[in-house]
Amino acid sequence: MRQSELFGGTMREAPKDEVAVNAKLLERGGFVHKTMAGVYDWLPLGLRVLNNVNAIIREEMNAIGGVEVFLSALQPKERWEKTARWEVLADIMYQFKDHSGRDVGLAVTHEEAVSEIATRFIHSYKDLPRFIYQIQTKFRDEPRAKSGVIRGREFLMKDLYSFHRDEADLEKFYAKADKAYRRIFTRCGVDVLVTEASGGTFTKNFSHEYQAVSEAGEDFTLSCEKCRYAQNKEISTITEGETCPKCGGVIRGAKTIEVGNIFKLGTKFSEAFGVSYADETGERRPVFMGCYGIGPGRLVGTVAEVNHDERGLIWPEAVAPFRVHLVALFGKEKSVRQKVVREADRLYEKLLAKGVAVLYDERGETSAGEKFADADLLGIPWRVVVSEKTCAAHAFEVKRRSVAKVTMMSWDVLMKKIVPTTRRRG
Amino acid sequence: MRQSELFGGTMREAPKDEVAVNAKLLERGGFVHKTMAGVYDWLPLGLRVLNNVNAIIREEMNAIGGVEVFLSALQPKERWEKTARWEVLADIMYQFKDHSGRDVGLAVTHEEAVSEIATRFIHSYKDLPRFIYQIQTKFRDEPRAKSGVIRGREFLMKDLYSFHRDEADLEKFYAKADKAYRRIFTRCGVDVLVTEASGGTFTKNFSHEYQAVSEAGEDFTLSCEKCRYAQNKEISTITEGETCPKCGGVIRGAKTIEVGNIFKLGTKFSEAFGVSYADETGERRPVFMGCYGIGPGRLVGTVAEVNHDERGLIWPEAVAPFRVHLVALFGKEKSVRQKVVREADRLYEKLLAKGVAVLYDERGETSAGEKFADADLLGIPWRVVVSEKTCAAHAFEVKRRSVAKVTMMSWDVLMKKIVPTTRRRG
User: Fold this and answer.
1) Do the domain assignments include residue A149?
2) Which residues face A255 on adjacent strands?
3) B150 and B50 within one domain
């Protein structure tokens, strides 16, 4: 799209009320707008990144059999009393009365909802297993919300719930989900440690967390440098500087961002809601459940934290809002301007026709310096400059955001480099 | 997908607590689940319909220059005090205090939010016009919520906001938006009357509503049978039985469902938030705004209200959850069963490979009668039966949901009829 049509724009200075790097960069670049602490609006550039992350998540969830649903945020108190979580989660759940005096809350998670729904559809062993997921907005009244889009009071969540006839089947799917999670983070360009952690209010079993190493992390993860065995600090059976129980390597500690988690719920929720099935002999048994969460917005924030330099963001190709940032430098002379417009327009149209996502900086009165600074801030993988100089050389000036080198390329070479030869997976 | 993998299932009887036809059919068919009055969960089948509607809306909004954003539901009170709507909308807005004692609310609409954001990006006449939209969940504490997904307390809304340098430019876009709206409803199979109506809390000017004629309607629309000139009853300059002021035809009244509306906001919101621009002479002027709403969930409910018979839903092709309902009737003999499975599987795989969305009823112990009743209830456009009889005839039994006739078709004829020759628009 043309940059002048964007509902966005960059700020020279980082917003003064932000501490987190992701928030500073995303707000400066016009990816998000802050409505209040922990509550962000996704502007066109930011939404494109978020949608790319969502698309990757959907592909991987569909690939392991997930079927998509979309559940409500508004929740009746009675539903949450069945698991006592109306009380347990009262500190972080928005709970209020509607105009008729009824107690309602905003969902922080959906185990209660899916369990209630499952009683309608799961009756027999033939109805198992089932895997449903959604990408939907959750609300959480965080006491501190200083980590930008990483810890929001309102945030998107992908939550998958699985239903099984027994623990063995749950274990089997849990391992599949773990693999899908690793693929998601790899595809988004985020290196994660898979840690053992406690189950919180969900389960007494261990759960697993996907922790990205970053200075912006609010968690502390202990991990072995050699075999990558990792634990969340809170369970603490390994200690920094000591020897890894798995391989004998050295355990190190690091601040990390939790980008995903998976839990074996067992029968806690199915027993509370009566989600049971008749087995082959007709005997009724409780369903085993698992839950699997990723925050897509938090993941975008994490990508920003681990992929930037002092000049701005450096989006990995798979999640970048556009593949190409086409920057036209018009100069002052009318004849030069016309030549540059013609050449830049031609390239823009051609790339669009080839299915390449292009942000076209055709702003008239912005200086070359400002355009380059904006391109660095926005962090689109390929920057292609059209100017008097490039027109004279019958070439384009090409620079990847992640490397310093600038290269002159002919039309044909540029096309070969920039137009993806294979379609994106999925 | 295979019907046995769906998180869904049909109910023989309509739920007792539902009055509206759309809710009865959508719940019976497993398209939605009711969490509480006016709050519905979208299950896999329902979400597919909703996503089809959303895709049509996105195409038409993008075609008139709309750029997508995703704004927050949580809203600070201070923002809404600038237009006095914290008070004005208090009856229908969920308003509560967070744990720190701050007043927050859930957005019923986003004029305040977009106006605040626009002050960041609109400075000069060169920054105009701009068109942003979102498809996002809104909350509204409806005193009565008896119309199923048509009047929800939590519902999806597509809301577009336009920003203009003057009234003439707003008028021009308003007319374009009107055309896009008509295309959306036509594509979704809903015939609408475009009515003049009052502007509510948005504007003192007339607005326009898109009203679908249906017994389930909560509105009352007066319209001319000849020229289709229409008014919402509340403005009442025309009366039932009288003569149309435009063409001399007869004015009739009908209950209708409001499926969309468009408003010229003028400068009400831009003045409250200071959204202004410098014109060519440097003089500062207020921005003119318009807003344009459609409820995708309500539209699904309306499609259900106007497209059903006593046996179930009859989805128009463009929004149907699947194009083909492939029904395999296995019979009791093993050899027959194997033959039917082989033939049905072959057709299923082939249709999937051709990009046709198929729901495959391969449930083993469901009777032919139940399968046909379910197919009628779910309302998928093409029903294709594979059975002992069809295998013997080297053909398939094909029935369109909207017509009574059953036809035997050979593989080749079936493929020609069912595989779309052109890609869907967009």
Assistant:
1) yes
2) A220
3) yes
Residues in B 348-377 with any Cβ partner in A closer than 8 A: 364
Residue A222 lies inside a defined structural domain of this protein: no
Amino acid at B162: S
ipTM above 0.90, yes or no: yes
- The answer to whether residues A301 and A330 belong to one domain is no
Say yes or no: A357 and A274 in one domain: no
Residue ending a domain, choose from B309, B333, B353? B309
Domain shared by A56 and A157, yes or no: yes
Mean pLDDT of the region B199-207:
66
> Can you give the CATH number for the domain in which A132 is found?
3.30.930.10
Is B253's pLDDT higher than 80?
yes
Would you call A69 and B44 a contact, using CB atoms and an 8 Å cutoff?
Answer: yes
Are residues B262 and B392 both part of a single domain?
A: no
Question: Is the domain of A401 the same as that of A334?
Answer: yes
Q: Give the length of chain B.
A: 426
Confidence of residue B425 (pLDDT cuts 50, 70, 90): very low
Instruction: Please tell me if residue A17 touches chain B, with a CB cutoff of 8 Å.
Output: no
Cβ separation A36–B76 shorter than 8 A: yes
Say which CATH number the domain at B391 has: 3.40.50.800
Same domain, B260 and B292: yes
Distances (CA, A) of A32 to A149, B26, B120: 9, 36, 12
The two tokens of residue B391 are: 């295998």
In this structure, of A191-205, B4-18, B114-128, the range with the lowest mean pLDDT score is: A191-205
Minimal Cα–Cα distance from A101 to chain B, Å?
A: 11
* Residues A363-409: tens digit of each pLDDT: 988 899 999 999 999 999 999 999 999 999 999 999 999 999 999 99
Per-residue tokens: B41: 């969960």
Q: Which domain holds residue A380?
A: 324-418
Q: Domain for residue B316, yes or no?
A: no
Q: Where are the beta strands (DSSP E) in B46-153?
A: 67-68, 74-76, 95-97, 103-106, 130-139
- H/E stretch holding B188 reads none
Q: Is the peptide bond before B321 cis (omega within 30 degrees of 0)?
A: no
Burial code (b: 16+ CB inside 10 Å, e: under 16) for A109-137 equals: bbbbbbbbbbebbbeebebbbbbbbbbbb
Q: Report the chain B residue with the minimal C-alpha distance to residue A118.
A: B7
Does pLDDT of A203 surpass 90?
no
Is residue A319, in this structure, part of any structural domain at all?
Answer: no
The CB-side HSE value for A60 (13 A sphere, CA atoms) comes to: 26
Give the residue among B3, B281, B38 at the shortest CA–CA distance from B151. Answer: B38
| pTM, two decimal places | 0.96
Determine the Cα–Cα distance for residues A301 and A296; give it in Å rounded to an integer.
9
Q: Inspect the interface and report whether the beta carbons of A71 and B35 lie closer than 8 Å.
A: yes
β B276-278/B284-286 pair status:
antiparallel
CA B357 to chain CA mean position, Å: 20
Residue of chain B nearest A114, judged by CA positions: B41
Element spanning B237, H or E:
none
- Please state the domain count of chain A: 2
| pLDDT tens by residue, A92-146 | 999 999 999 999 999 999 999 999 999 999 999 999 999 999 999 999 999 988 8
Same domain, yes or no: B56 and B184: yes
| Cβ atoms within 10 Å, residue A425 | 11
- Of the ranges A16-20, A301-305, B7-11, which is most confident? A301-305
- Does any CB of chain A come closer than 8 Å to the CB of residue B162? no
How far apart are the C-alpha atoms of B68 and B53, rounded to whole Å?
16
Tokens representing A373 are 């600074």
Give yes or no for B289 touching A (CB within 8 A): no
